[in-house]
């Protein structure tokens, strides 16, 4: 059994150190995650270069995310089909080729098509790394390997704005994709040499449940598009409700089929384990806070403070530095304390870091953002490392690739839903808060006038009552500006409250069985 599993790339091979091969996989994952944020930073540049409408250009990002979210849960099937080694080599090779195709695109449609291919190949790189932690390493090294993978996974979105801003200001938009070529080719060649050999099992293709695959793809794609459209169209709009209904029905049919199939596309029965189920919930909640904060900070810095992409990246580096400095502490504590205790500490601290950002003002900038970023950066490793061990640490080797796909899918879905909720709060609450500010100004509230930025001597000299149209037109931009700040504060509060929900599921998580000796 052990030999058969090793040939399929499911079980670790103990010949030589696994660290060089794992490092190559981690670099590939870092590239895929970094690419998302780098391109997101350059969306306005791409719109101007490709001469497309603002509502169209977002598909450059949405196409990638839809393909990625479909690929992530397929990692288990693809690992069984190709082995861990050849899946990574193929995925990083296709990702590199698609990056070149994106850079060479002469039109919007071609770029979107290449982004689909790039997203699908990049989606398999992320769960493959977390699978490798439990397939390549003995128990004593899994904590360190998880930390390395986790640091790179959460560091990439943090440094993305800095890299994207620097590239767009220094070079052309083509370099957003060309930067992947050299490391991609290097990783592909190195992986052939360094990763354990595995046997390609063509029989997996004959056992592939095509109906289940289509149902899963429809469910995830419809959900992603619905989340993209909901803040603009409204959650109760016919299009959004139709997409959500299609996603729910397809998802239920997919789950029913997968739970009854002898060879499902994705092994959902692992969710019966309380530790894995709790780990997936924690991964989802981390996605809300992690991707939500990485999204919300640039929104504030760009639209409230007027910073460019490069300046935003410099501000956000604080989180990345805190992550790197706290990683060794997380590894040391993970070896001595239970996963549930450390997870509770991490999510409490992360919620506190999100809550510290609730008190933003129009003058908030680097200095006021420093300590909230430090707290969040320290907390993130405790929100990632223990839940990963909780979810995957007690599984048999053949279950790890499928489980890693589900675990990472939950984090991505949490991020997508979190960003949709943030946009809903900002664009839904903004006008409401603006009207409330206007009413307080009409009532003569001095504190509100000061917060808006009105000269107090002029404000106090005006007669009480409604503001005349000419003055209202002059004051409206100031009111909208403060309303945006207050709406962003409410979004921070929402994320802090959602993060605290992680504590609810921890008592139901039984500790994982000890991992296999190795």
Spans with pLDDT under 50 lasting ≥5 residues?
1-14, 513-518
> Helical amount among residues, as a percent range?
over 70%
Number of strands: 0
Major beta-sheet overview: none
Average of per-residue pLDDT values: 89
- Assign an overall shape: globular
Counted by DSSP, the helix tally is: 22
Structural class: mainly alpha
Explain this structure.
There is one protein chain. The chain is globular, with a radius of gyration of 24 Å. The two termini are 15 Å apart. The protein has 518 residues and is mostly helical. Helix 2 packs antiparallel against helix 10. The longest helix is centred in the C-terminal third of the chain and has 43 residues, at 400-442. It has helices at 2-7, 19-41, 43-50, 54-57, 59-71, 75-104, 108-136, 139-170, 175-178, 181-194, 203-206, 210-233, 238-260, 274-303, 309-334, 339-355, 366-392, 400-442, 446-452, 456-461, 469-500, 502-505.
Q: How do you describe this structure in short?
A:
This protein has 518 residues and is mostly helical. The protein has 22 helices and no strands.
Summary keywords:
518 residues, mainly alpha, 22 helices, 0% strand, globular, disordered N terminus
